[in-house]
Specification:
single chain, alpha+beta, Fructose-1,6-Bisphosphatase, Chain A, domain 1, D-Maltodextrin-Binding Protein, domain 2, 2 domains
Length: 279
């Protein structure tokens, strides 16, 4: 089992997160410098693309975590589980979310560091590689660390709806009624961060044969939980599930369901959670 110091107290958690934020920002700068020198790009066994920078970034974050939180388990997209093996509480890493955008030097890519426990999303740090903005939070205490809150919440809805079926729930109807189909969304993590921050109202990912993985969800789910937003799996076998409150095994189940059919993901900002509940 993980013995992460992140779970010992609020003081320890905030101290660790505040120490980790500048380290992630430094790693981000190094990643951009490395891209200028050239990228090695190849396909993984699952057909997804990866670069040498994905590997460099994940290794750099793991090295930082080994100093900041030596007892904590780590689960990353490129290296899998640390020596702790699968467990209920772990740091969850996506070294480059939006790899294709990163390769093409387009907006939308980010570095994502989340912490997940048996009680759901605990903390998140997301760094926007194009805009240089870092989103960070402690979901347990409800502390939003950065950036400053939006003065007025945005009302745009971003995402992808690539299913033959129509809406099956009120929340899906609401999302589809406002979805900006002409907008190319950022990577999944960054869109969730934008919803949590209040820049946009909602985000949807619904596509046959694929769904985001745990490392695509962990940090964004923590940001949403902190802000009062929500992350929903709307076509789960047992009905609508609030993902940010579930164990990491539920995130795996969600990804597996998406690979075998579809698993609709919807992120809602706090103002619009209230709006839907009060309808």
């Amino acid at each position: 089992m993980s013995e992460s110091q992140l779970m010992t107290s609020e003081v320890a958690r905030l101290s660790m997160l505040n120490a980790l934020i500048p380290e992630v920002e430094k790693i981000a700068k190094d990643a951009l410098d490395q891209r200028k020198m050239g990228l090695d790009v190849w396909k993984k066994s699952d057909g997804s693309i990866v670069t040498n920078v994905d590997l460099i970034v994940e290794r750099a974050i793991r090295d930082v975590l080994s100093e900041i939180d030596p007892g904590g388990a780590v689960f990353g997209e490129e290296e899998g589980w640390s020596e702790h093996h699968p467990c209920d509480a772990a740091w969850v890493l996506d070294p480059i979310d939006g790899t294709r955008m990163f390769i093409e030097d387009r907006p939308g890519a980010s570095i994502s560091v989340g912490f997940w426990s048996s009680e759901g999303a605990i903390a998140g740090i997301v760094h926007d590689l194009t805009r240089g903005v870092t989103y960070a939070c402690d979901a347990v205490s409800g502390t939003w660390l950065c950036p400053s809150p939006m003065p007025e919440p945005g009302r745009d809805i971003h995402g992808i709806w690539d299913l033959k079926r129509g809406a099956q729930h009120d929340v899906e109807e609401w999302i589809l009624s406002g979805l900006d189909v002409g907008h190319e969304p950022d990577g999944c993590v960054l869109e969730m961060a934008s919803v949590a921050h209040g820049a946009i109202a909602g985000y949807v990912f619904a596509a046959a044969g694929w769904a985001p993985f745990p490392w695509d969800l962990a940090a964004g789910a923590a940001l949403l939980r902190t802000s009062g937003g929500t992350l929903l799996w709307t076509d789960a076998p047992e009905g609508v599930i609030t993902l940010q409150d579930q164990s990491i095994s539920t995130l795996d189940r969600y990804s597996t369901a998406g690979a075998g059919g579809s698993a609709t993901l919807i992120a809602l900002g706090p103002h619009f959670v209230d709006e839907l509940l009060n309808q």
